[in-house]
Amino acid sequence: MIAAMLAAIWYAPPLVFLLILGIILAAACVELTDLMLRAGVAMSRSAATAGALIACAAVAAPGAKTGVLLVGTVLGLFTVVLATRKPAPDVPAAAAAAAFPVIYLAVPLALAAVIRDTWGREALLLGLLVVWISDTAQFYVGSRFGRRRLAPLVSPKKSVEGAVGGFAAGIAAMVGAGRLWLPLVSVPALAAAGAALVALGIAGDLFESLLKRSAGVKDSSALIPGHGGVLDRIDALLFVIPGYYLLLALLT
Known about the structure:
With 252 residues, this protein is mainly alpha-helical.
């Protein structure tokens, strides 16, 4: 999946890249709605997916009326709740959940296209590489030296030692590649940005683990044999990409 994403980032025309994001988004929406249903929150899979796709296009598509489409999407999702639900204690949770895929999935994935269009494919690739290198370091350092649990109730396998290794590797990757791909950004700023991205990646991973544990499942789905679901593959990026977008806007 990583190889395919790298090829898409580097070679795909903007419209094709947005289409690929849409496919990823649709799969992640199905998994998220299934998690919510398992956790006892009723959601319309079709409405959630359609709303998320419209929101993604609203944010990412050049020339789109972003504000109008986002507001219209959220109102439409709330209208679906109104039309399909009777008064019940879980209606407030269902109404909030209707907009959740837009916020949690659609906007972050759309911002990946915005970063690519605004700062270039190198900038987007840099952010993803920092996360992937950090994740790899966390796994190997944690497997070898991990003793203290980072968040035992949410993700028992994550360790403090692994996180430290991830921070070191992520910062090194950001500084090393950032000097090439973001040459106008100072080394201290790159180091700080690398640390921020690693922290956001860990938070994103733990957040999805919290959703899965609340739903009583180990993986978001079995779509990718041996790796779980799409949501399991992009969980860190859902926190990292919005943060990276803000950092790029501030630093460049």
